[in-house]
Amino acid sequence: MSKLQKHSNAFQLKRSHALVLSAAFGLAPFAMAQSAPQITSDTSNVYYQIPYSGTPTWVRVFVDTDRNASTGYAGNGIGSSFLIENGNLYRYTGSNGAWGWTFVKTVSSVSSNGMAKVTISKADLGSPAAIDAVTQTSAPTVTSAKLTQTLAAVAATPSSTTAPQITSDASNFYYQASYSGTPNWVRVFIDTDRNASTGYRGYNIGSNFLVENGNLYRYTGSNGAWGWAFVKTVSSVASNGVAKVTISKADLGSPSAMDAVVQTDSPLVTSTKLSLASGAIAPTTTAAATTTTAAATTTTRAATTTTAAATTTTRAATTTTAAATTTTRAATTTTA
């Protein structure tokens, strides 16, 4: 037997022993070399690319948007604020780093030819400047090392673009934002109590109301997750690169101050937080209240008239009694 054959047989024997040991101790068998997981981004989205073998039961991406291992789900060397699993986005709602998630929305996730590709809007992650992430597939379970990515900056707004605005008069709020292309939707997220911990948590505010394409919604979700109930239609016009939304102050509960974020898509453009501080909102007219008071005064007068009529009736009754007395006397005279 040649030396080459001996070396070949020895290698096959060692490999066979390794496979037996792998099976005995639950270790994964040898696999073909795979591409490393990757994170990339552009001005609107974050892209995750995860290699896998076989037919995965699930493909996961753990995303740490504040890059703080002591917050969110504690695992795999990061503190995950979000989890993407098989195309579903979840927000962390557990406590003390334990497993606990709330569904947010579906995102793009495609698996083909040993490669899973996940795409998610930066806005859906709160538009972080950088993230840590860990990818995971099963079975067999393969967990990546920590991946770190500084995300691409959002494209600067052209100088000719109108800046988003909020104004008000005695009856309405007016929202204005510029857009490019043909937007799929125009949204206004409205925080009427100016408390980022209540309502839908996103874009650094806590939205109690959402206006989307002329439809007003009230927040009905829980734990800051996406969830809305239709209220009514409102005025929303998009023309010549400017979207304008008008909504009655009464429909928002007549707040004295508010925060808001305006968003158009596509391309996805999210404004910074817009604020109307207390005193900046035009006061509601009091003319209607004055009219109501006048009506109340008229009613009082009517009541007074009714009382007078009742007095007159009493007097009439008294006169009748007197007449009856006279009749009695007349009867007495006749008898005599």
CATH class of the domain at 38-150: Mainly Beta
The proportion of strand residues reads 35-45%
CATH-assigned fold name of the domain at 38-150:
Immunoglobulin-like
Helix count, DSSP H or I runs of 4 or more residues: 2
As a percent range, the share of helical residues equals 10-25%
Rg value: 37 Å
Main β-sheet: number of strands, strand sense, barrel status?
A: 7 strands, antiparallel
* CATH-level-2 architecture of the domain at 38-150: Sandwich
Strands, count = 26
Instruction: Please trace the helix and strand order, writing H or E for each element.
Output: HEEEEEEEEEEEEEEEEEEEEEEEEEEH
Euclidean distance between termini CA atoms:
169 Å
pLDDT averaged residue by residue:
76
Globally, the shape reads: elongated
- Catalogue the unreliable spans: 2-33, 155-161, 285-336
Helix-and-strand structural type: alpha+beta
Region (Disordered): 290-336
Keywords: Signal
Signal peptide: 1-33
